[in-house]
């Protein structure tokens, strides 16, 4: 929301006007006003509470009714990842497309669990289903292949796609225990209060499944990604690996074979001669192997606060330009 306001001049220069007509969250409930909600109120100081909004603006928790009340042209969907079935994000996006709105999401679940359905539904209604922020924040991974590398054959990829494990492993290399390193990551806002999705490799696995599904054209259920997190690594193992010149990283891999695509996520010792060994902090890197470019590397170095929001903004601009 702040980024929309910050980039208002750029948006209007492109002929894109906007207003926030609905907002929904666990704390606020479902609020809609087709005339536009007060952006200064939404982004103002203090905690935003339901009491800030007149009762007449509060809607039922039926997402389709809320979208209709808001007369939404686009939905920004940013609920947390549900590794079991991608809900409620899948239903939210389905409702938006059926309502006739573009759908922009930062949630990997809909891509992993309902990509084909939602893509077809978007096409049927002449709308866009966009998800650039699901992998590497707002770095244009999906649009790189969709818009700039047509007819290329992707053989596989490998990389580091989860920043929380980077921060934890770096802390352990500095002599911290796993629990202390995790707590530090939570204190600086890198890790969630419940960091199990990161620590156990679920977040990275979902990103791998999304990349395989979209870029390699192979349906990749999350259950088919061989997954191991970093929770079993001891401080001694991590320190010894760094001392040996091959630090541990949580590495994602996917490769096309004669039998289909295989995908893995797990801790690996990476030699210092490999660029992956130097990916630190909240940085990410992915290395694509294609028939034309044997090695195509995309790196994101310590993204700032706006990175994920920018990916959603870029998707919104693509949708508005449709």
Detailed description of the structure:
The chain is an alpha/beta fold and 322 residues long. It has 2 domains: 2-138 and 306-320, 3-Layer(aba) Sandwich (Rossmann fold); 150-300, 2-Layer Sandwich (Dihydrodipicolinate Reductase, domain 2). 37% of the residues lie in helices and 19% in strands. The protein contains 13 helices and 12 strands. A 6-stranded mixed beta sheet has the order 8-10-9-7-11-12. A hairpin with a 2-residue loop joins β9 and β10 (260-269). α4 (63-70) packs across α5 and α6 (109-124) runs parallel beside α11. The relative contact order is 0.13.
Q: Structural class from helices and strands?
A: alpha/beta
Read across the widest sheet, the strand sequence of neighbours is 8-10-9-7-11-12
Q: Approximately how much helix is present in the residues?
A: 25-40%
Number of helices: 13
CATH superfamily of the largest domain: NAD(P)-binding Rossmann-like Domain
Shape: globular
> What is the element string, with H for helices and E for strands?
HHEEHEHEHEHEHEHHHHEHEEEEH
Tell me what portion of residues adopts beta-strand conformation: 15-25%
- The span between the termini is 21 Å
What integer is the average pLDDT?
Answer: 93
The domain tally reads 2
